[in-house]
Automatic annotation (TrEMBL):
Record's protein name: DNA-directed DNA polymerase
Enzyme class label: transferase
Residues annotated as domain DNA polymerase Y-family little finger: 246-346
Domain DUF6504 positions: 430-502
Amino acid sequence: MARVVSLFLPTWPTDRFRRQAGYVAPPAETPLVLVGRQGNRRVVTAADLAAQSMGVRVGMPATKAQVLVQGLLVKDADPRADAEALERLAVWALRFSPIVTVDPPDGIVIDTTGADHLHGGETAMLEGLIGRLAMSGVTAQAAVADSWGAAHALARHVARPAAVAPSDHGAAVLRDLPLEALRIAPQVTAALRTLGFDRIGELLAQPRAPLTLRFGPELGRRIDQAVGDAAELIESVRPADLIEVRRAFAEPIGAPETIARYISKLVAELCERLEAGGLGARRLDLICRRVDNDVQAVRVGMATPVRDVKRMTRLLCDKIETIAPGFGIEMMTLAATLAEPFGRRQMASLLIEETAADVSDLVDTLMNRVGERAIYRMAPVASDVPERSVCRVPAMAADSGTGWPGHWPRPSRLLAHPEPVETVALLPDHPPVSFTWRGVRRRVQRADGPERVFGEWWKRDAELVAVRDYFRVEDDAGERYWLYRAGDGEDATTGSHRWFVHGVFG
């Protein structure tokens, strides 16, 4: 089942204007409109959220908007710059899926069929997409559905800010939406309202022939596209410097072994292009165009730049089962949508042994099965505060050279959050005699400490005087724990003097 994301940017022109202005951009609370000419009149072509909340609407005369809103900032519209920036944004969105196109004037469409699991699921994918845009100053709404038409409608009339339609939804998610959600001409919408139609469900209940006779085939085509009865081709954008190869077939192909054979040929040809540019591929997109104009896409990623024909072929062939050839594939395109400089490694001689095994091939295989974010390793961070001294990095990330403190042992398991315990202890320097954790009382047999950890005053004012005293303790069952007391045991301003378990020694 196909899945399509529609990304709606309701204030794209004004957002782009503010981003382009940079540090001299007007603040978000200042109402801003962009105006252009409509015949001999100057009318509002775009208004930000602040201006809209004060009653300004697109199509309103510029003079009326200025009278309506005191302190309104008026700038000239630049539709060409808006379109070019939207194209660049679509290229950026290629990181989410191999098939992305613009939906002018204020949208982007992404075919995410089979790619959502790489981003933590559809809900997490939409939240990540909207969140990244929000951090860049771009307001966005997004929806995912079975078709471009349905996703387009939900993104503009349902998403707040995201909406996920169930698979195989048909017309169910569209019935209560207004006629404008069908992407039909405004004059057709006005004529339908004159006839008494207000919702899409009312149109679906009518015979198709009278509607086609009166309004032409476009209305029926939009309805079929929205409910998923008619396919809608998504022509993906491509960066100008994209390295890609393609092959067209005189006779459509469909057998898995045939697809695998041509994948191998395309990979070999792509590697020659990569070698000529001194590059290695970090991400490959295989796009298969069927005879019915449907497009099947496969994406694989690599943890490091790769130019190994055998390895790249295997990663792509592992995904052949996700390709539905239908009545046959008439063209295959393979692109390195993410390429980086390829660093050559010195080959080991018989007198020099490899110091470490190359596990990048294994990492690539796992990454393409469960998602890039699911494969990682823990790396040290220069911080004495235990929960800040570790972070997740990509599995094949270079060693930063930072290490964990070696003067005091650290537990093999650090709890996600310190858990409070009830203790019996003498203040200020003695370890607890016993402690109760998760409902079980444990008597301490041995202890070592304290190790004093100070707060990082340069991060938060509250940590100026914050102190923790850590102890390694062993209970009567031989289990070892990492406990700390919040505060120095004497001054109440340094902490609450409560005890916590922060880790467990193996």
